[in-house]
Model the fold of this input.
Amino acid sequence: MVERTEFAAGTPAWVDIGTDVAGAKAFYGGLFGWSAQQAGPPDETGGYGFFLKAGKMVAGYGPKQDSGPPFWSTYVAVADADATAKKVEAAGGTVVVAPMDVMTAGRMAVFHDSQGAVISVWQPGDHTGAQLVDEPGTMCWSELRARDVDAANAFYAAVFDWEPETHEGPMPYTEYRLGGQTVAGMMGIPPTTPPGAPSQWLVYFGVDDPDAALPTTEKLGGSVRMPAMDFPGGRFAVLADPQGATFGVLRLDH
Done:
């Protein structure tokens, strides 16, 4: 198991979803074998809880707080959420949820980047992030699908010090690197995306067999947004849960 007890600043460290909690527990439990655990008394936590794999925290969930569709959020570890908020605004982004303490777990904030994609940050306290990563049923990749690739590169370089390394081809792909390590990815919005769709982050979870995940997803009430296909590093597919939250499944061949 790839267990983690800390994440370097500038590294995606956590993912969560605001949704119909009962439906999410049933769907993701069936797809990934997750169990669920409340973070504490609901009157103190707002109903937030953790999805567990092999007894380790791998993602978070909570009741949806607005009228928009549910979505998976990526949280990037930072040393100072308040300082990051100032960088976001200076780089042309906006603060959606101002930095706030989450009891003793840590300090969080939610932003729109310069193109409107939602990105969150986590300043760790007692909770350092996912305890298990990069294996089946755990987060293994976060990818930005951007309307303006150059603007995305400028924003994330200014906020997280990410260095873009672009691989050219029919569909150019950018790896964001920090201290020589790849931490996230970015690509232009695919041409099949409906007009007007905003830039957005997509969370990928590891699976042994992306093809097998498709019928399981549909049996559980979800849908297939992009069938399984190969890429130079493995095979992936893009799915949606019954509430419409999009996510990817990924097998890395290395």
